[in-house]
Amino acid sequence: MPKMPLGVLLSVGEDLAERLKRIYAAGFPTMQLVSPPTEWLADPKRTELKGLIEDSSIRVTSVAAVYEGESYAHVAAVRSTVGLLPEETRASRIEDTKRCADFGADVAAPNISSHIGYIPEDRADPIYCALVAAVQEICDYLHRRRMNFCLETGQESAGLLKQFISNVSRENLKVNFDPANMIMYGTGDPIDAVELLAEWVRGVHCKDGVWPKAEGQLGEERPLGQGEVGVERFLAKLKQIGYEGPLTIEREIPGEQQMQDFLAGKKLLEDMKAKLEID
Prior knowledge:
Blueprint: E1 6-10, H1 16-25, E2 30-34, H2 45-56, E3 59-64, H3 75-81, H4 87-106, E4 111-114, H5 126-143, E5 148-152, H6 158-168, E6 173-177, H7 179-184, H8 190-196, E7 201-206, E8 208-209, E9 221-222, H9 231-241, E10 247-249, H10 256-275
Parallel strand pairs: 1-2, 1-10, 2-3, 3-4, 4-5, 5-6, 6-7, 7-10
Antiparallel strand pairs: 8-9
Helix pairs in contact: 4-5, 8-9
């Protein structure tokens, strides 16, 4: 497989078989999957899903754990609902992540990724300590399956994320780097951030976005190449740090336009890879 193979982020639904056919026909050799809904994690749906993936010939590079009740409407909603941060749902979401890992192992995915929520800056904060313990539990569970747990970037600075990784102190804790999230959350320049986190990066989202317009708001997602990430400089930095893993196009919209944006993103990335002599 070539360096930086292209892929897409897909959710599981009743039309998955047709979407997989289109993705493969379009020339994507890899994909990340959003964690399947509960009904797809028990037979007969589980066996059906595994068969669809195996028949597609598309390699699953990661399963993204998402949790019921999360909202990304604005900063306050993210703080109160996303990831492992809310205390009232933390224990159940740890178990959800383990079930996601069990499914990921079934489809030979090497990574599970997730937004764990805003990490407090104060290492003495009880919530910080609780997040460290939660991620340690998840990492230990995944270690027995020879899998990594990849933290999705965006809700904290690269420096704080690096500190958190050090405090968790698990060799299979890695990073799924999303440059658009750094911009949309207003947490730092993605080029500087990916260099700081280089040794932990095991996956990359190719997504674009613009900076927030006001405090408390999130920036808006854009089709790849139409935001403020700077696709060419981002790929050039990935090449410089020695990253050769998958480039997964993410587009957070439904319907046919998502597929069209996947295709447009693919052409852009192929052109940039050729220009930068990434083969």
